[in-house]
Design goal:
The structure is a single chain. By secondary structure, the chain is α+β, with helices and mostly antiparallel strands. It is built from three helices and eight strands, in the order E-E-E-E-E-E-E-E-H-H-H. The chain has a three-stranded antiparallel β-sheet, with no helix packed on it. Helix 2 packs across helix 3. It is elongated and about 70 Å long.
Length: 192
């Protein structure tokens, strides 16, 4: 039975922190789900399945990450453990951790790339306003948890902003900025 550890962002410095979890499931499930029947005394590979007629949406969710942990310890931090005891719908899903490549690029003229491969439990800080990225390099789905310094930070995907603006940015301007042929700019704009 695998556990999932969720790191709480507890200080202003970590407000920009980046940590991640990766979730994966065993292939070829025999059923849609097997919500844990935690009251059953029989223990199999995980818990026995609850009768599907008794399953509710709450069996697949957890509320509690909004509650601050006790940070009055020697480490000055707290972690909230979330596993099948808190989310019965995790039963038999084979949850595991993976890796993520992250990085950012400094401003002109240096345009210096800072990049790192993160493993479970790692944190990475993106400086405010710099172009940054994250890419799943594992063989499973990845979920990123980010702390941002704005109540409504928004998202700007560079390709969508530049090539998908309404109305379109002139192909002449984009061709000159990217130093590419206008026909290539038009082909890219057509995709958006």
């Amino acid at each position: 039975m695998a556990n999932i550890q969720v790191v709480l962002l507890l200080s202003p410095l970590l407000a920009l922190a980046f940590c991640y979890l990766t979730f994966a499931a065993d292939p070829a499930s025999l059923q849609d789900f097997c919500v844990a029947d935690t009251n059953n005394q029989v223990k199999l590979n995980g818990f026995p399945c609850k009768n599907p007629a008794w399953v509710q949406a709450n069996d697949f969710s957890f509320s509690g990450l909004h509650n601050p942990g006790n940070t009055g310890n020697q480490f000055g931090s707290a972690a909230t453990l979330v596993n099948v005891a808190q989310i019965p719908g995790l039963n038999t899903l084979g949850i595991s951790m993976g890796s993520l490549e992250v990085g950012f690029v400094t401003s002109n003229p240096d345009n210096r790339l800072f990049s790192k491969i993160l493993q479970k439990g790692d944190v990475f800080v993106f400086p405010v306003g710099l172009v940054h990225f994250q890419r799943n390099i594992g063989h499973m789905n990845a979920v990123a948890i980010s702390g941002l310094s704005s109540q409504n930070p928004g998202v700007s995907t560079i390709a969508n902003v530049v090539f998908g603006s309404k109305p379109e940015i002139s192909t002449d301007i984009l061709a000159k900025a990217f130093q590419i042929d206008k026909n290539i700019v038009q082909q890219i704009q057509w995709r958006f």
